[in-house]
């Protein structure tokens, strides 16, 4: 309802927006603290976005990102840093400060007043995470007013927020089935909305090699030509991969590349026979068995090959991590396995990266700076702890996105568990593994692709569960509660539908 709607210069249309309650909004992940002041900010055609910072271009890009997202949700086109025009109405300021009440690059504060919204952060990452909160506070539908335009009511109050875990990830297996650059970008867009900051790409496996290595072209020519089920496969050129890395960087998401070895390497050995020490190249494999392949770990030429692969991928991966896989090397002798992992760790370090490996790598003699990804063995996770390593939590029975929801699921496996939406959320990463909190880097939910071959199937397994993992990794324990989360999750339907996401409409959720 417009009480005063004359749009003369400098006079604000004043709306009676009714009472609001910021604490009851459907924010996921739920912020560290939320205080309501019960009024409303009216997002209208006269709202402008302004950015103030030392890192001018990065903050301006974040302002433009917000403007673009507001346009696609509401149809409003808000100018960014348009200092020529004197705005007559609301202002959204995105401000870099030396310090705010919470510390950390991803921390932010959001003050929503009647006429001004101020988003403050010390670093662009924080501003970007805060922008996601603001996006979630803009209602899907505008309110009709007596003026010619609707307005979008944002509840007033204060939010200060910071992530609980510094590593909040998902993994996508592009090896068992290949996914296109466009598919990966769509997944990244969805992850960014829920403040995920790492996407781990499982780039190689028995069934396919998916990343161009210029010094070893047959890896993609031969090793990239197949996938599970006998379909055509595919691979990322280095340009494609850089495109993904850059796209992710604009969403403040870091790509973690994985080359899985010494097991899970049939596609590589089918391309170059010397890698597994055989006379003839291995046959391409299109099934779903695991644990049957291995590199020849005692041959220097194998390490020269790995040096090239790690160097070429590291050159186009600005992030701090390189994942060497290391899982399920069932046909590698134990000593050979341990020798291999230690030697490959040195190569990864030589190219300036920290090594991540699946939990088995903790059985080798490796550095405390390397990271173990706990998926199956608590004993291995304990070994990592004793070595002073940090651990990423991906327990299969809780966080594997490729596990079926229940017996009726169309896709997925069930070897670790059925993981319905509530079970995916109801566990405590802080205490689950018994690893001390300060050695837990974060949580990652892997999506293996033996049973899925296109984006709709990917979305069916990833959503809505991935939304729960975002809250498990960002929100502190005191703010997590299944009954409350369930309501906020139910309210994600409009967003998911607008984004054309074919999520699994779990009957355990009363979708709105
Ligand atoms: C185990 S998890 C694997 C993968 C499979 C997955 C299927 C892990 C480190 N290894 O090779 O794709 O199970 O759920």
TrEMBL record:
Single GO cellular component term: membrane
Recorded hits in PROSITE patterns, A to Z, give: PROKAR_LIPOPROTEIN
Tell me which residues make up the Glycoside hydrolase family 20 catalytic domain. Answer: 165-330, 337-476
Asked if Transmembrane helix is a keyword of the record, the answer is: no
Annotated Beta-hexosaminidase bacterial type N-terminal domain residues:
26-161
| EC nos | 3.2.1.52
Q: Which InterPro entries match?
A: Beta_hexosaminidase_sua/sub, GH, Glyco_hydro_20_cat, Hex-like_dom2, HEX_bac_N
Query: Which keywords are on file for this protein?
Result: Glycosidase, Hydrolase
Name the catalysed reactions: Hydrolysis of terminal non-reducing N-acetyl-D-hexosamine residues in N-acetyl-beta-D-hexosaminides
GO process annotations (BP): carbohydrate metabolic process; glycosaminoglycan metabolic process
Query: Catalytic residues per the record?
Result: 328
State the source organism's domain of life.
Bacteria
Q: Name one GO molecular function term.
A: beta-N-acetylhexosaminidase activity
Keyword Hydrolase attached: yes
The record ties this protein, via Pfam families, to: Glyco_hydro_20, Glyco_hydro_20b
Family the entry assigns:
Belongs to the glycosyl hydrolase 20 family.
Name this polypeptide is given: beta-N-acetylhexosaminidase
Native species of this protein? Lentiprolixibacter aurantiacus
Give the classification, highest ranks.
Bacteria, Pseudomonadati, Bacteroidota, Flavobacteriia, Flavobacteriales
């Amino acid at each position: 309802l417009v009480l005063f709607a004359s749009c003369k210069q400098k006079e604000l249309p004043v709306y009676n927006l009714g009472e609001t309650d910021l604490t009851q909004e459907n924010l996921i992940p739920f912020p560290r603290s939320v205080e309501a002041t019960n009024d409303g900010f009216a997002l209208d055609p006269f709202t402008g976005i302004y950015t103030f910072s030392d890192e001018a271009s990065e903050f301006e890009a974040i302002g433009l990102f917000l403007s673009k997202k507001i346009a696609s949700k509401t149809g409003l086109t808000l100018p960014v840093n348009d200092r020529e025009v004197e705005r007559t109405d609301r202002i959204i300021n995105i401000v870099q400060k030396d310090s705010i009440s919470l510390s950390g690059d991803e921390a932010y504060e959001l003050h929503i007043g009647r006429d001004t919204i101020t988003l403050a952060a010390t670093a662009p990452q924080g501003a970007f995470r805060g922008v996601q909160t603001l996006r979630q506070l803009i209602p899907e539908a505008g309110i009709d007013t007596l003026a010619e335009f609707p307005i979008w009511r944002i509840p007033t109050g204060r939010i200060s927020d910071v992530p609980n875990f510094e590593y909040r990830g998902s993994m996508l297996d592009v090896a068992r089935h290949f996914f296109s650059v466009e598919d990966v970008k769509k997944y990244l867009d969805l992850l960014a909305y829920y403040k995920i900051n790492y996407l781990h790409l499982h780039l190689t496996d028995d069934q396919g090699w998916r990343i161009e290595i210029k010094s070893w072209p047959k890896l993609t020519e031969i090793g990239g030509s197949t996938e599970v089920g006998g379909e055509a496969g595919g691979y990322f050129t280095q340009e494609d991969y850089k495109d993904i890395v850059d796209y992710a960087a604009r969403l403040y998401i870091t790509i973690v590349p994985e080359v899985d070895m010494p097991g899970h390497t049939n596609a590589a050995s089918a391309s170059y026979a010397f890698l597994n020490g055989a006379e003839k190249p291995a046959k391409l494999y299109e099934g779903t068995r695991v644990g049957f392949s291995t590199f020849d770990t005692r041959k220097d030429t194998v390490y020269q090959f790995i040096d090239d692969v790690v160097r070429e991928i590291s050159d186009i991966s600005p992030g701090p991590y390189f994942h060497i896989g290391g899982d399920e090397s069932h046909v590698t002798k134990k000593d050979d396995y341990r020798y291999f992992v230690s030697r490959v760790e040195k190569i990864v370090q030589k190219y300036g990266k920290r090594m991540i490996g699946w939990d088995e790598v903790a059985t080798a003699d490796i550095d405390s700076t390397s990271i173990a990804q706990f998926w199956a063995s608590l004993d291995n996770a304990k070994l990592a702890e004793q070595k002073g390593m940090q651990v990423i939590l991906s327990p299969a029975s809780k966080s594997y996105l490729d596990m079926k929801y229940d017996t009726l699921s169309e896709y997925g496996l069930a070897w670790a568990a059925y993981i319905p939406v509530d079970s995916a959320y109801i566990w405590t990463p802080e205490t689950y593994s018994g690893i001390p909190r300060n050695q837990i880097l974060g949580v990652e939910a892997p999506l293996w692709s033996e049973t899925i071959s296109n984006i709709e199937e990917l979305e069916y397994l990833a959503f809505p569960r991935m939304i729960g993992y975002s809250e498990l990794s960002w929100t502190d324990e005191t703010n997590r509660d299944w009954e409350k989360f369930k309501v906020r999750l139910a309210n994600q339907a409009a967003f998911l539908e607008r984004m054309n996401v074919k999520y699994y409409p779990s009957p355990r959720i009363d979708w709105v």
